Amino acid sequence: MFKTLLRAWLVLLIVLAGGAHAAANAEFAALTNQFLDAYWQALPDAAIAAGKFDGAEVQPIPNRATRQRTIAFAQAWTRRLDQVDAAALPPGQRTDLALIKNELAAIRWNLTTFRSHEWNPSDYNTSNGLDAILNTDYAPIEQRLRTIMQRLDGGPAYYRAARASIINPTREHTQLALTQLPGALTLLDALDKMAQGSALGAGEKRIFGQRVQQNRAAINTFMAELRVIDASLANGSARSFRIGRDLYEAKFNYEIQSGMTATQTYQSALASKEQLLQRMQQLTDTLWPKYMGETPKPAGRTQQIKLLIDKMSENHIARGDLFAEVRKQIPLLEQWVTSHDLLTLDPGRPLNVRETPAWQRGVAGASIDAPGPFQPQRATYYNVTPIDGETPEQAESFLREYNYWMLQILNIHEAVPGHYVQLIYANKSPSLIKTVLGNGAMIEGWAVYGERMMLESGYGGNTPEMWLMYSKWNLRSVCNTILDYSVHVLGMREAEARNLLINEAFQTDNEVTGKWRRVQLTSVQLTSYYSGFAEIMALREDRKKALGAQFDLKKFHEEFLSYGAAPVKVIRSLMQ
Question: How far is CA 313 from CA 308, 310, 466, 509, 514, in A?
Fold first, then answer.
């Protein structure tokens, strides 16, 4: 009798607890929706990036009042979320709560401490919003053009506020803005041409044309002001682009959200660099007779590897074949992933290879422009920066860097099964928070992991050539971390950076020039590749040990990707 009563009480408690948890879950889900509504209002450009175009007709003005409202939003929501009992939530919602609170803390830190709005003029460019509205098929083209026309009305005020916000900029970011803003003028011309040839009324076309000219004048004025600033900084008085140890560690904590600090990640990268060089030495010994014949080996390890890679890099595509070759490789990679049962691919999500828009150039040579979770059917753009304008020497340097083997690895990283595939999975995640607040280290880490996964499956025929070039590519990710930390925290100079990248990471001069430019213009982002990759590899090996014979690689990949773009440490906690 006692046991029966006890059992009944236990059942009742379980039912009551389940009901309480269900109520807490529903309450937090409603709170999350309220947060996102407030988030879109506070950060309208984030809404557009997510594929949400309600309110896209209003151009946000980057002035002090806007920044103060954004800080107030972050503070108010932090107080509100501090009242939530995280222990009462299931793991998925508990991690959503932590991600939202991290985002709010990062917003406050960026606006009150990091303050890039004061020293980075390249932050100010209206093109991304205009381009997203134009190239997302969320409404008929005339409706989108009307939205653009309304948004253009705020353009002149935007650039006036931008100039008023800039205080003591770095010269590097000032020059980047001057490189990218002419692309904004090109976009305006394209928009006007499209509007004038559309079904808009005559009055609308006239207003559209007037606003394009007003925006052109505003951009030209802004550029003239930046040229004056740039000239005044030529004497070396500019703020340093190096952000220093304290800002670096804090930025790493907010953006990477790793299980390690920035310093620990840097030390781990140094150890990985040595392991890769040892492996590359073994592969060099194997391949030397085939490519170098009777040429005697130099004494140093890195000299031997460099000579061999230089010789192998002669095997590359012709200058005019870049875009054709990239387009040809995508379906071959998709076929490999499917036939080797690595992932389930979605054939209904198009990938368009295009030239990098002019206003996005100057930082990376290739990138993915993916749709947000509210417009998952929109095409994904694989941006490749053309080399048409390069000198013969620059073009040859690029083609040798992206030689026969390396170009394949680039396409694996950017497209299949890298960024393109991962971001499609992210848009299907049941957690909107984990997709909207995507973690850069998980995103880049997956792309780097995808390279390793493909070679482990036999892609490239398991040849020593492919493994050597993969090792060089992987060394690039490792040295990205070493370079970024060394430059921003340890004060590494350009000559030291070039020595690292050319003589210890075997990169070509063109690649090194671009990387030195990139490390001056960004901070912490370059660490995301190695940080995310290392954590994914560690997680995979831990799951193999835990599951033993039950471990299934495809299931691991698909479960991992099902959590949106959450930090790897969050995915680890959910998978366990």
Answer: 9, 5, 12, 13, 19
Instruction: Report which secondary-structure segment, H or E, holds 383.
Output: strand 380-384
Cα gap 394→387, rounded to integer Å: 8
* Cβ-proximal residues to 215 (8 Å cutoff; 6+ apart), any chain: 126, 152, 155, 156, 188
Is 77:71 a contact under the CB 8 Å cutoff? no
32-67 burial, b if ≥16 CB within 10 A, otherwise e?
beebbeebbebbbbbbbbbbbbeebbebbebbeebb
Element (H, E) at 381: strand 380-384
Q: Where are the alpha helices (DSSP H) in 53-167?
A: 64-81, 91-109, 116-119, 127-135, 141-152, 155-165
Distance CA 538, CA 550 (A): 18
3-state secondary structure of 355: strand
Q: Quick one: which of 500, 556, 497, 538 has its CA closest to 241?
A: 497
What residues are paired with 486 via a beta bridge? none
Q: In the predicted model, what is the mean pLDDT of residues 227-243?
A: 96
- What is the enclosing helix (H) or strand (E) of 301? helix 301-312
How does DSSP assign 243-255, residue by residue?
A: --HHHHHHHHHHH
pLDDT at 6 over 70: no
Provide the whole-model pTM: 0.91
Between 71 and 351, whose confidence is greater?
71
pLDDT at residue 68 tops 50: yes
Q: Omega into 417 within 30° of 0, i.e. cis?
A: yes
Among 454, 409, 446, which residue's Cα sits nearest to residue 425? 446
Say what the pLDDT of residue 69 is: 98
Residue 527's nearest CA partner among 242, 253, 256 is 256
Mean pLDDT of 83-89: 96
**Which H/E stretch holds residue 561?**
helix 553-561
DSSP string, 403-467: -HHHHHHHHHHHTSSSHHHHHHHHHT-S-HHHHHT--HHHHHHHHHHHHHHHHHTTTTTT-HHHH
Q: Give pLDDT, residue 13.
A: 38
Q: What are phi and psi of 351, to 5 degrees?
A: -125, 120
- The model's pLDDT over 142-200, given as tens digits with 9 standing for 90+, comes to 999 999 999 999 999 999 999 999 999 999 999 999 999 999 999 999 999 999 999 99
The token duo for 483 is 């370079």
Q: Residue 239, exposed/middle/buried by CB under 10 A (0-12, 13-18, 19+)?
A: middle
pLDDT at 89: 96
Q: Using CB atoms within 10 Å of the CB of residue 118, give its burial: 0 to 12 exposed, 13 to 18 middle, 19+ buried.
A: middle
Tokens at residue 58, please? 């209003």
Q: What average pLDDT is seen over the chain?
A: 94
| Residue 408, token pair as written in the block | 């394949």
pLDDT in tens, 524-538: 999 999 999 999 999
Q: Is the pLDDT of residue 1 over 80?
A: no
